[in-house]
Amino acid sequence: xxxxxxxxxxxxxxxxxxxxxxxxxxxxxxxxxxxxxxxxxxxxxxxxxxxxxxxxxxxxxxxxxxxxxxxxxxxxxxxxxxxxxxxxxxxxxxxxxxxxxxxxxxxxxxxxxxxxx
Length: 117
Known about the structure:
Blueprint (H helix, E strand, L loop, with lengths): L1 E5 L2 E4 L4 E8 L8 E6 L6 E6 L5 E3 L7 E6 L4 E6 L8 E8 L6 E4 L3 E6 L1
Parallel strand pairs: 2-11
Antiparallel strand pairs: 1-3, 3-8, 4-5, 4-9, 5-6, 7-8, 9-10, 9-11
């Protein structure tokens, strides 16, 4: 499955952004999906996941602020980011998992989110 992420940009602290990741080349609905991020000088971290059945999980630092969702009709996964903090500044990557697995099948290209104070 090929992934194309979009929606990054510059936003002030406290603001919102919505990232999108469009998938092609495979039956989207069978894949769990996720968002990772990598901040400057830091390791890549898992931000949120959504299963093929729409179950979600979040890293503690974004709980209550970020929402992951999917639209299987549009082959797209979203990450709604609210109450953004400077610490959310990072390159965000979407991933597709192999069906029924926690193994990553595909990575999208990154989209940069910059949160200014």
